[in-house]
Amino acid sequence: MNVQKKKVVIVGGGITGLSAAFYLQKTAREQDLPIEVVLIEASNRLGGKIQTVRRDGFVIERGPDSFLIRKKSMDTFAKDLGIADELVRNATGQAYILVDDELQPIPGGSIMGIPTEVTPFLKSNLFSLTGKLRAAGDFVLPRSGVEGDQSLGHFFRRRFGAEIVDNLIEPLLSGVYAGDIDQMSLESTYPQFYEVEKKHRSLILGMKKTTPKKVPQKDSHSGSKQGAFHSFRNGLSTIVEAAEEQLEPGTIRKGIRISTIEKRGNQSVLRLNNGETIVADAVIMTTGHMAASQLFEPHGILQGLKEIHTTSVATVALAFPKDAVIQDKEGTGFLVSRSSDYSITACTWVHRKWPTTTPDGKILLRAFVGRIGDEAIVDLPDDEIERIVLEDLGKIITINGKPDFTIVTRYKEDRPQYRVGHRQRVAAAKAELQQAFPMVKLAGASYEGVGLPDCIDQGKAAVEDVLNGLFER
């Protein structure tokens, strides 16, 4: 007797959608479940923000360049795809904060901006004596009386004062979100700090007690210290290409959008922009929140997702001959304090941080521009963005001549902002969906974490929800 297969449609071919498709098919094979998976991607390529350019011996990332090793899901995905041997760790080195036209080393012992060693903090030129004394208030201040969510800025300014926040904590914590620390949700971005204060009162003492002592790991060949991040020898697109290759034939549909979604009994009817109709037993939506909101607008649900703001950013990769750039600072890059008069927000010295990306005799820099309140630069022509970036970099390092080539990448209204109340907005949207379309699930960077491992975790969780719903496991 033929068993009717359950059709699961995954909308969006970024890392969330790819991992969901892979693990759904893997589980179906291992448990002999009758499932057909269809992955629909609106563009003509997979990977979402992951996009690697391989040019003239360079490996250049247009989007994310790595992921935290301590978050295991990306490494596990690589292992399950059979490409774990392609993983490489970043080279360690001093990182800096640009303040008042000077690159100041991030003090040793700083854990995400929180000082846990007194001597490096006292010696740092990042802060005035007044700022250091104010930060010491953390030792005596009581716990916060705020109930529920609050902004990162409010939380940290109360404990350390404005100077420590503006010159150290803000550049370190807000960069990944390109956000405003005074609007970012503590609960949805860095809830561990709230828990540390709740348990230990002092963040400095609490972080010192709760952070495991680091045992320096060294490369077995070079003997040098190993970093906390992984990428792939030939770029992050390696994992996208491996996933695409290993998904079952006929799974992927590129260049197609969903026009409408309707409910028919326990199923969803998807009408595509090519005139085709797909009847799905379950749907995993991994697109951005605005696309999800628009799709369900005719049903009057998910409209609260429009309250999730986005911002625009751009990255500028610049390749040079080695002798064209003179750097008198050893290290892997720097972040820019908001108080500094620069258009760039950060710069990675890629040839140092990721040596496998850059041919011998060359230098690769990657600068970032655009954040909340300073997004107009993203709309400028490529050559104008390049000029501004080179002008900013020229104030910090010596650059002789023009780059061999430049690659500008824009992400327009693309970076979700986890503002205060974010968790409640996402929970409300999922509750609406559960009521109206119980077999449609939301996952991806707009909801419960923007990092690559976070997105994979969400994809796998959505797969579990779908399987439990379809087979009452």
From TrEMBL:
Q: Please give the catalytic activity noted in the UniProt record.
A: coproporphyrinogen III + 3 O2 = coproporphyrin III + 3 H2O2
Q: Which cofactor does it need?
A: FAD
Q: Which Gene3D superfamilies match?
A: FAD/NAD(P)-binding domain, protoporphyrinogen ix oxidase, domain 3, Protoporphyrinogen oxidase, mitochondrial, domain 2
Q: Which domain of life is it from?
A: Bacteria
What EC identifiers does the entry list? Answer: 1.3.3.15
Q: Name one GO molecular function term.
A: oxygen-dependent protoporphyrinogen oxidase activity
User: What does the record give as its pathway?
Assistant: Porphyrin-containing compound metabolism; protoheme biosynthesis
**Pfam family, any one:** Amino_oxidase
Compartments where located = Cytoplasm
Q: Which family does it belong to?
A: Belongs to the protoporphyrinogen/coproporphyrinogen oxidase family. Coproporphyrinogen III oxidase subfamily.
Say what the protein does: Involved in coproporphyrin-dependent heme b biosynthesis. Catalyzes the oxidation of coproporphyrinogen III to coproporphyrin III.
What name has this protein been given in UniProt?
Coproporphyrinogen III oxidase
Give the organism, scientific name. Sporosarcina saromensis
Write the gene name: hemY
